[in-house]
């Protein structure tokens, strides 16, 4: 809890304690509303407490006795993070309801006036007097209908139902009005005025726009890998491990050497050489997979002297990306063997991009966006981009895949997200009503 919130909590708690003491020590003969009270003030809250309690009883009558525990509950709710104003609003609405209903009960029970324990008035206060007025003009059925409707209204506010409905309706109407009136309005309907020739021009974008990836000489790389394999064999022999390299799988970060040990060599001896091999090979890291699943060889993963950059263009040109049928195919990179890795966004219920500063979050985000742009047409995939920091996504302003211009204002972002949630709920309800299910 912050210092500011802690101070507010203490002030609220002290204020509630003062109100509780004032109410429960109320004396009808103390100075107050309509009472001069020449005698000594008996209220434990002093003159202020006497007037405060008198005001509460004058307005609400007997139901004021229910106020203290409710206020304590409200302060506790504030302590755990619930807005105190919301509780005050609800509780005063409840007080009004109790004043009306108890005033009706007291009048029909023949209790016109009187005091509980000689000091608490048995009436509904000034608010409660409205019950007679309402019964006179609405009749008894109308009065009960009003009382029940009012109680339902309080419950709806208490559970936040009305607030949620109001917020959603306001957000939906405002955003809908914006979408209908703005020049750059967006719709989920495809653009029908776009000619086929124009569509071909904008999709897909030419791959020449992306950076070219360096093409290594196959012969040169093979010679380098063979040389590293010979060094690995010699280092293993130094530790009494005989065998041969039967396969090499180069990757962008590590290279996997498939080592087949000679008969009689225990795997535990090889596994225990991780640190010694890293030192002997001057490698940043060495990892041993003993054995490789499905093979009779040991995998020795050695970090490359120089990390190879993975270019998006290379993944987008790969057969794996081209042959994927999903319009939501995204490029992830390469595996340890150097093979392109892609995935279908439809199979990812949630996608969280996280990491420390400089770890590549922004690069990956742009890779995801560009993958979708190169794989899908503007009719198949639409983007709603929100970038209040105005750093990453502003560069995509104007692309045909945008559902709406890039949202930069935080208030507009809230409306856009609310509209998006409403659309999602609407679509899900539509699918369920038609017995549609997402393909697995």
From TrEMBL:
GO molecular function: ATP binding; DNA binding
Alphabetical GO biological process terms: cell division; chromosome segregation
Membrane topology: Multi-pass membrane protein
Superkingdom, natural source: Bacteria
Segments passing through the bilayer: 7-27, 47-80, 87-106, 134-162
GO cellular component terms, A-Z: plasma membrane
Pfam family, one: FtsK_SpoIIIE
Binding site for ATP: 355-362
Keywords assigned: ATP-binding, Cell cycle, Cell division, Cell membrane, Chromosome partition, DNA-binding, Membrane, Nucleotide-binding, Transmembrane, Transmembrane helix
SUPFAM superfamilies hit by this protein: P-loop containing nucleoside triphosphate hydrolases
The keyword ATP-binding is assigned to this record: yes
Localization (cell): Cell membrane
Residue ranges occupied by any FtsK domain in the UniProt entry: 338-440
PANTHER family in the record: DNA TRANSLOCASE FTSK, SPORULATION PROTEIN RELATED
Family: Belongs to the FtsK/SpoIIIE/SftA family.
Protein name: Cell division protein FtsK
């Amino acid at each position: 809890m912050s210092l500011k919130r802690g101070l507010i909590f203490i002030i609220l708690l002290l204020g509630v304690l003062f109100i509780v003491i004032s109410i429960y020590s109320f004396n009808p003969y103390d100075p107050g509303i309509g009472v001069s009270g020449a005698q000594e003030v008996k209220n434990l809250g002093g003159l202020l407490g006497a007037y405060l309690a008198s005001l509460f009883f004058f307005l609400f009558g007997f139901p004021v006795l229910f106020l203290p525990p409710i206020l304590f509950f409200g302060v506790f709710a504030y302590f755990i993070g619930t807005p105190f104003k919301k509780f005050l609003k609800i509780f005063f609405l409840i007080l009004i309801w109790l004043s009306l209903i108890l005033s009706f009960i007291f009048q029909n029970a023949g209790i016109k006036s009187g005091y509980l324990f000689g000091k608490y008035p048995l009436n509904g206060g000034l608010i409660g007097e409205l019950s007679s007025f309402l019964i006179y003009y609405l009749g008894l059925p109308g009065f009960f209908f009003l009382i029940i409707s009012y109680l339902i209204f309080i419950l709806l506010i208490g559970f936040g139902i009305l607030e949620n409905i109001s917020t959603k309706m306001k957000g939906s109407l405002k955003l809908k009005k914006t979408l209908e009136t703005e020049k750059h309005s967006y719709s989920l309907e495809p653009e029908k005025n776009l000619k086929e020739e124009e569509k071909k021009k904008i999709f897909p974008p030419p791959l020449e726009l992306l950076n070219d990836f360096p093409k290594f000489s196959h012969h040169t790389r093979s010679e380098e890998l063979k040389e590293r394999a010979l060094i690995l064999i010699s280092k293993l022999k130094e530790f009494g491990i005989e065998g041969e390299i039967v396969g090499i799988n180069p990757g962008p970060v590590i290279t996997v050497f498939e080592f087949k040990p000679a008969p009689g060599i225990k795997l535990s001896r090889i596994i225990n050489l991780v640190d010694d091999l890293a030192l002997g090979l001057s490698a940043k890291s060495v990892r041993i997979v003993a054995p490789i699943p499905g093979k009779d060889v040991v995998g020795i993963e050695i970090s490359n002297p120089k990390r190879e950059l993975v270019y998006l263009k290379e993944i987008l040109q790969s057969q794996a990306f081209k042959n994927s049928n999903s319009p939501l195919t995204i490029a992830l990179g390469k595996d340890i063997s150097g093979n392109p890795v892609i995935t279908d966004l439809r199979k990812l219920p949630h996608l969280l991009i996280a990491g420390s500063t400089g770890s590549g979050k922004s690069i990956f985000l742009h890779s995801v966006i560009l993958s979708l742009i190169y794989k899908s047409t503007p009719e198949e995939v639409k983007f709603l981009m929100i970038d209040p920091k105005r750093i990453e996504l502003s560069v995509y302003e104007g692309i045909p895949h945008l559902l709406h211009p890039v949202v930069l204002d935080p208030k507009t972002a809230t409306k856009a997200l609310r509209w998006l949630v409403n659309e999602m709920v609407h679509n899900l309800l539509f699918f369920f009503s038609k017995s549609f299910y997402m393909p697995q």
